[in-house]
Specification:
The structure holds two protein chains of two kinds.
Chain A: H1 8-17, E1 26-37, E2 40-51, E3 55-59, H2 66-74, E4 81-86, E5 89-90, E6 101-104, H3 116-126, H4 131-144, H5 160-172, E7 178-182, H6 190-207, E8 210-215, H7 218-224, E9 227-232, E10 235-240, H8 242-247, H9 252-258, E11 262-264, E12 267-269, E13 274-277, E14 285-295, E15 298-305, E16 310-316, H10 317-323, E17 330-335, H11 351-356
Parallel strand pairs in A: 3-8, 3-9, 6-7, 7-8
Antiparallel strand pairs in A: 1-2, 1-4, 4-5, 9-10, 11-12, 13-17, 14-15, 14-17, 15-16
Helix pairs in contact in A: 1-4, 3-4, 3-5, 4-5
Chain B: H1 14-21, H2 29-55, H3 59-68, H4 70-103, H5 109-115, H6 118-121, H7 124-135, H8 149-174, H9 177-185, H10 190-219, H11 222-228, H12 238-247, H13 251-284
Helix pairs in contact in B: 2-13, 3-13, 4-8, 4-10, 4-12, 7-8, 7-11, 8-10, 8-11, 9-10, 10-13, 12-13
Classes of the chains: A alpha+beta, B mainly alpha.
The structure holds adenosine-5'-triphosphate and magnesium ion.
């Protein structure tokens, strides 16, 4: 990671030039957004408020409308109804050219016939900025994204991760009010993805540019985002901090999309919130141990209850050795005291939305 | 018996043998290469060599004289001028038509798309007669292009229409729309996107199509013969001049003009290819 860590000076320069920091207001507001593709209802009454300087993840399964929403914010898709407000002005019908955004695509969308320098300098150059100024800014940005010295290369001579960093530099070159990223690391392998994720997080928090990141990877969202909007079938199911959506999911969809679940007496709980005991305790359900899987730091215990329903519990190694579990053991399981289990189909309105709307 | 100190004979490893026997990935192997060479020789090289031999039959002096004859030079210049105009029009309109066929949705698009190639199917002499009846002395639209250079241009446009359209179309279909969206998000107007992003990507295909249209135009005979009227130094093109030479049994003269056309075509195609592949190579490198 050290080779691509942004230098403090370079970052400072970037912030100076960027009009992005405006803490305390809302960078993006979306009200009652609707989008149909023929008969298909891709976005249903989307309401979302994204605070300035934050990193928000749009998280949801494939086809849930994440890209459509992001593209509507960018102006690449015209909604059928509702409004999009960026930096306080209604841009619903403003073309992308005039929205002052930066957009990064999953497959880089590099200008293949241009060098890295010309790619990154594209935005400033069509704004007719002086050549020397453009060159200076390009060099600066390439330094920040860890591509210093790659100015004269063509995109085909870069790795996927390098191409995506070039795309990021290209988007940042125009001092965008908001940075929109559609699964930017989706095409990269796990190691590079991890590195770039951390690096983006650092870049974002130091530059303070309001960022919206689309992902279908809940780990990625939990890892980097200040706020997560969970989408499903064109709706926002919940909006909140990573902790909120993980620990107090609004409904079973959010609960099961954000992590593993176990069903106990018809209620969903996280496997690591289950308490196992060899003795009969209050509220506990009797179960049989089916399998004990050692996963390094943690141990997964697969269980079967009286109605032959399988569930698994996640416990620490210490806990496992204390319990001395063996296949076939008769034990008792109950939810941990601090957890509120989610009753299935308790589809309440997403609590996060009220709190944050303007 | 002397103890052999020589190195043991090198047994080629099985992997080396396999490597030697095989062609590079994606290659066709020696068989394919042989067939391609033979085919090119029989179909292309042999006839071209025969024409060239005929052209130089009476020595290089005669060859130069044949080309320098005033009527011959005039025919060559008319041919080149008209073909150049035709090529430029094709580049612009062919690209536009390809664009409309790929990017716009309209009723009857499939039919229009199928129509593009039809000029190829029409015998060129029929094209010439049809054009003459439409734009000749009895033109129903009162447009009289017979025996004029614009008449030649129209006839050549008719027969060269598909070249640019068909070479640009597949490239345009393959263009990544996200690249254009990225440019738009960076503030580029549609015009800028076309000029700076799309056109450079299309350039090799446009140039390739232009080369085909140009070479077809300089050699064309059938479609121009009637509407052009073959007026010497006015509308007489090289192919008509050659035919006239053949009629008066000056075969070497005709062959000399043919060779001149071949050289021009070769130089133009090579030049266009070089320009086109420079752009293409950048994109393809290390992919
Ligand atoms: N141009 C289009 N025409 C028709 N339907 C579309 C179009 N774009 C998207 N859709 C549909 O809208 C729905 C939402 O698409 P969207 O691309 O927003 O999903 P997503 O959440 O980004 O999914 P993924 O994670 O697979 O990218 C999908 O069912 C998709 O088929
Ligand atoms: Mg998507």
């Amino acid at each position: 990671m050290t080779d691509i860590a942004p230098s403090a000076d370079a970052l400072h320069a970037l912030v100076e030039g960027s009009g992005a920091i405006n803490v305390g207001s809302h960078a993006i507001e979306v009200h009652g957004l609707e989008k149909h593709y023929g008969d298909y209802h891709a976005l249903r009454d989307i309401n979302l408020t994204i605070p300035s300087g934050s990193l928000t993840a749009l998280l949801g399964p494939s086809g849930s409308g994440k890209s459509t929403l992001l593209r509507a914010i960018a102006g690449l898709e015209v909604p059928d109804g509702g409004t999009v407000i960026i930096g306080g002005s209604d841009v619903t019908y403003v073309p992308p050219q005039e929205r002052e955004i930066g957009f990064v695509f999953q497959h880089y969308a590099a200008f293949k016939h241009m060098t890295v320098r010309d790619n990154v300098g594209f935005g400033p150059s069509i704004r007719k900025q002086p050549k020397a100024e453009i060159a200076k800014r390009v060099d600066e940005l390439l330094e920040i994204v860890g591509l210093g010295g790659y100015q004269e290369r063509y995109p085909s001579q870069l790795s996927g991760g390098q191409r995506q960093r070039m795309a990021l530099a290209r988007a940042l070159a125009v001092h965008p009010k908001v940075l929109l990223l559609d699964e930017p690391f989706g095409a990269l392998d796990a190691k590079v993805r991890d590195d770039l994720r951390q690096w983006l997080r650092q870049l974002q928090s130091e530059t303070g540019v309001t960022t919206v990141l689309v992902t279908h990877d809940q780990e990625e969202a939990l890892d980097v985002a200040d706020h997560i909007a969970v989408l499903n079938e064109g709706r926002i199911e919940q909006w909140g901090s990573p902790r909120e959506v993980y620990e107090t999911p609004a409904n079973t969809f959010v609960m099961s999309f954000l992590g593993p679940t176990a069903k106990l007496r018809g209620e969903l709980v996280r496997p690591h919130d289950l308490v196992l005991s060899k003795r009969q305790i209050d509220d506990a359900v009797p179960v049989t141990v089916e399998r004990v899987v050692h996963l390094g730091f943690e141990v997964r215990v697969e269980l079967r209850d009286g109605e032959s329903t399988d569930l698994s519990a996640q416990i620490t190694r210490g806990e496992a050795s204390r319990l001395e579990l063996a296949v076939g053991d008769q034990i008792y399981v109950r939810p941990g005291l601090h957890v509120d289990p989610v009753a299935p189909d308790s589809a309440q309105p997403a609590p996060g939305l009220e709190k944050t709307s303007a | 018996m002397a103890v052999s100190t020589a190195k043991p004979p090198r047994v080629p490893s099985s992997s080396a043998k396999r490597r030697a026997g095989r062609s590079a990935p994606g290659g066709v192997g020696p068989g394919g290469l042989g067939i391609a060479t033979l085919w090119l020789s029989v179909i292309v090289l042999l006839p071209l060599a025969a024409v060239t031999a005929k052209a130089f039959e009476n020595g290089p002096g005669e060859f130069v004289d044949a080309i320098n004859a005033p009527a011959a030079r005039a025919a060559l210049l008319v041919t080149l001028g008209v073909s150049l105009v035709v090529t430029v029009i094709n580049v612009v309109l062919g690209t536009l038509i390809a664009w409309v066929l790929v990017r716009d949705e309209f009723r009857g698009k499939r039919i229009v798309n199928a129509l593009i190639d039809l000029p190829f199917a029409l015998p060129t002499i029929v094209a010439s007669i049809v054009l003459l009846s439409l734009y000749g002395p009895q033109s129903p639209f009162d447009i009289h292009l017979n025996a004029t250079r614009p008449g030649l241009v129209v006839a050549l446009l008719f027969v060269t229409l598909p070249f640019v359209v068909r070479s640009v179309q597949p490239v345009l279909i393959e263009i990544d729309r996200e690249v254009e969206e990225a440019a738009a998000s960076l503030g580029a107007s549609n015009r800028t996107i076309f000029l700076k992003i799309i056109l450079p990507t299309l350039a090799p295909a446009v140039l390739g199509g232009a080369g085909l249209a140009f070479t077809r135009a300089i050699g064309e005979y059938g479609s121009v013969v009637l509407i052009g009227g073959g007026i010497p130094r006015e509308t007489e093109v090289a192919s008509q001049y050659i035919q006239k030479q053949f009629e008066i049994d000056r075969f070497a003269n005709g062959a000399a003009i043919s060779v001149a056309l071949l050289i021009i075509a070769f130089v133009v195609l090579l030049g266009l290819r070089l320009v086109g592949s420079r752009a293409a190579r950048r994109e393809e490198a290390a992919r």
